[in-house]
Amino acid sequence: MALEVATRYELFPAHPRSAALARDRVGALLAHWGRGDLAGTVELVTAELISNAVKVSEPGGQVGLGVYRSGDAVVVEVWDGERLPPRLLDPGPDDIGGRGLMLVGVLTRRWGYRWPVTGGKVVYAVIDTPM
Question: Where does the Histidine kinase/HSP90-like ATPase domain start and stop, copy by copy (predicted)?
């Protein structure tokens, strides 16, 4: 399976609006690739990962988004400056948040994280072609 080097890497302000901006950028990139069939899933995963990155970032900071193809899959990578790993939460039925990574886990082949040598962490998700 050939790995395509990231064709889109972009920095966004660590602000809640960045999730919508990133979602729109990813949708346009998928359309350019002719992969509109993945748009709903990839956009949702992107928005969840960017939202999480914004929550752990310093005010006035930045978060990064990388998107590339690997065979038939699309890989989304989100960088933030926090070194702590992401945590799956166990929200109660009345909690209004805490379900983002559970959703990412359901929608993707796999997700995980790594610590780049430049600092912070990268959370990634691999989204397959629908069956």
Answer: 12-125
